[in-house]
Design brief:
- The structure is a single chain.
- The protein has 295 residues and is an alpha/beta fold.
- It has a single domain, classed as NADP-dependent oxidoreductase domain (TIM Barrel, Alpha-Beta Barrel).
- It is 37% helix and 17% strand.
- The chain contains 10 helices and 11 strands.
- The strands form 3 sheets. The protein has a 7-stranded parallel sheet with strand order 3-4-5-8-9-10-11, with helices on one face. Strands 1-2 form a two-stranded antiparallel sheet. It has a two-stranded antiparallel sheet with strand order 6-7.
- Helix 1 packs parallel to helix 9.
- The protein is globular and about 50 Å long.
- The two termini are 30 Å apart.
Length: 295
């Protein structure tokens, strides 16, 4: 594979995110915080360097949240990148907060959501948040049915006030998306998805037809040993890393998929971004598709 040092992010194409057009390979800032996404980064200077290198490589879409750290990743983004490039879209997330020991807790009330918006604005140094994802806690890392009307009505009111430009959903079902769209336009859905977790295939296809972006998290998580062995074999045959192949498969899976692989390493950043250059042959795609059915 070529382009390891200088990946061509435009090779993977673009998709709309609200009224922005973004490259389909972005960057997720979560791993810039300390262990367990809690506390300061292991290496502050490298965290800043990774953010600047991502922008220099052509990334125009960063995913973050004020509860990463908490506050750590947003403050790093501000330090590294402000004033922001005109084409940079920063997406943040609400619905959670961190306990004193790093516990993941819900933050769903209207007051908590308003404070979350204000905190994200302050720490990012913005007057308006481009996209805010409402993260459902009805399920932990898999969607669970439950109402989100109160939360979306709160965000819609903040949108009317000019504090939010666009609204997305995270960890949700199709029904929750459909219900949400009756309250406010939804521009993206962020759910767990990878080669081994194919439960959202129908949702992804439906969202593509609606022009809505789908953003996978855990792109290489929860694999069985057999599934990992199969991925490793395909990657070895292509001369690429397993992560690159898994990311390339997601990009080829549907045109509305936007990727946000995260890392705190410059080397891993280059490796991840280079997946935008990797075109999987039909034979490799067929072998990878079969991984979802392997235990």
């Amino acid at each position: 594979m070529t382009g390891i040092a200088n990946p061509d992010l435009s090779a993977a194409g673009t998709w709309t995110l609200g009224d922005r057009t973004v490259k389909r390979m972005g960057y997720g800032a979560m791993q810039l915080a300390g262990p367990g996404v809690f506390g300061p980064p292991r290496d502050h200077d490298q965290a800043v360097a990774v953010l600047r290198a991502a922008i220099a490589a052509g990334v125009d879409h960063i995913d973050t949240s004020d509860y990463y750290g908490p506050y750590v990743t947003n403050r790093l983004i501000h330090e590294a990148l402000h004033p922001y490039p005109a084409d940079l879209t920063i997406v943040t997330k609400l619905g959670g907060r961190r306990g004193d020991q790093g516990e993941w807790l819900g933050a769903f009330s209207p007051d908590e959501l308003r404070r979350g918006v204000e905190s994200n604005l302050e720490n990012l140094g913005l007057d308006q948040l481009e996209v805010v994802n409402m993260r459902s806690m009805h399920g932990l890392h898999a969607p669970g049915e439950g109402p989100l009307e109160l939360q979306l009505e709160t965000l819609a009111a903040l949108q009317q006030q000019g504090l939010i430009r666009h609204i997305g959903l995270s960890n949700v079902t199709r029904k929750q998306v459909e219900d949400g769209r009756r309250i406010v336009p939804i521009v993206c859905v962020q759910n767990a998805c990878n080669l081994a977790n194919r439960h959202d295939d129908g949702l992804i296809e439906w969202l593509a037809g609606e022009g809505i972006a789908y953003v996978p998290f855990f792109p290489l998580g929860g694999f069985s040993p057999l599934q990992s062995d199969a991925l490793n074999a395909v990657a070895a045959g292509l001369g690429a890393s397993p992560m690159q192949v898994a990311l390339a498969w997601l990009l080829q899976h549907s045109p509305n998929v936007l990727l946000i692989p995260g890392t705190s390493s410059l080397g891993h950043l280059r490796e991840n971004l280079a997946a935008a250059d990797l075109v999987l042959p039909d034979e490799a795609v067929a072998r990878l598709d079969a991984i979802g059915g392997q235990a």
